[in-house]
Amino acid sequence: MEYNNLSKAQKKIADFLLSREDIGGFLSLNELSDQAGVTAVTVVKFCKRIGYNTFSDFKRDCQNYLQSMIFPRNVVRFDYEDISGSLDNTLQKAIDNEISLVKETLEHISYENINQAIKMIINCRKVYIAAKGITIPVAQILQTRLDFLCIESELIKMDNINLLPRRIVNCNEKDVFIIFSFPNYTLALGDLAKCVKSLGCQVICITDKTVSPPACYSDILLLCQTASTIFYNSMTAPSSLVNIIATLLAIELNDVLKDNKPEIKRLSQYFNDKNCLR
C-alpha cells in the first residue's frame, strides 16, 4: 500500500506512526486515535486499508517489527573475533569493558532525573519493584537497601501474571513503581507500567533503551549501558546505579534514620544471635 493512496486522515495516522514508531505498537485503539488526531473508526479502517483484518493484528505486527529492529533475539553475541587471543588478554578486555559500561552510564545519566527519583521514593507511601529474569537479583539488592532505610517496598517478579491485578488493585498516586527492563525484554513489563499509570502511580524505569516496553509510560527514565563483550545484558551498570540511588537515599534520610535508631535498637533485642540460629 503506497502512502499517496491513503486518505488525508489515514496519512495522519501513518505520519504519527512513522514519527513515533517507538510507542505506536504499545498504544490502545483509543490512545492511537487521540495521538493521531483521528477517530477510532478511522484507525480501524486504516488497518484494513493496509491489509490487516483487525487492529490487534496490526498492533502485534508493530510490536514484532520493533523487536526485530532494536531488541536482540539473543542475549549473547556470536562474533568473538575481537576478543580472541590469550586468556590474560581476554580477561583484560572483559574488565575494561565492564568498567566502560559503568563509566558511560554514570557520565551520561541525568542528575535531574536521579534527584527527582530520590524525591519520589522518599515521598511515596510504598515502592513496588518490578523485574523479570536476570534483573531480579539487582531488584533484590534495591529492595534490601530500601529495607535497611526503613522504606516500605514490595518485589514483583512477574512470575504469576494472573495474581498481579490483586497485588496492585489498591495502588494509587501515593505509590511508586521502579521497573527494570533489559534484554531479553518482556512486553508484560510494558503492560504493567501502562496499568499502574492508569491507577495514578508514578513510574521510574531503569533500562538500556528509550524504546524498551515500559519506557514510554515512565515519569523518569534512567538509562544504563549493558552491552558487554559477550552479553547484551550485563548487570554491572544497573547494580552500580542501584547502589548510587541507595546512597543518596541514605544521605537524604539521615535525620529520620537517627530518630528511628533507638526504637530499632530496642526491637533488635528480640532478635539476638541465639534466637537467629534457631
Quick structural summary:
The chain is α/β, with parallel strands linked by helices. It has twelve helices and five strands. It folds into two domains: 3-70, Winged helix-like DNA-binding domain superfamily/Winged helix DNA-binding domain (Arc Repressor Mutant, subunit A); 102-260, Glucose-6-phosphate isomerase like protein, domain 1 (Rossmann fold), CATH 3.40.50.
Report on this model:
This protein is an alpha/beta fold and 278 residues long. It has two domains: 3-70, Arc Repressor Mutant, subunit A (Orthogonal Bundle), CATH 1.10.10.10; 102-260, Glucose-6-phosphate isomerase like protein, domain 1 (Rossmann fold, 3-Layer(aba) Sandwich), CATH 3.40.50. Helix content is 53%, strand content 9%. The protein has twelve helices and five strands. The chain has helices spanning 8-19, 29-36, 40-49, 55-70, 87-108, 111-123, 136-148, 164-168, 187-198, 236-252, 254-268, 273-276, and strands at residues 126-130, 153-156, 175-181, 202-207, 220-223. The chain has a five-stranded parallel sheet, sandwiched between helices. Helix 9 links the parallel strand 3 and strand 4. Helix 7 runs parallel beside helix 10 (236-252). The longest helix has 22 residues, at 87-108. It is globular and about 75 Å long. The N and C termini lie far apart (71 Å). The model has no long low-confidence stretch (mean pLDDT 87).
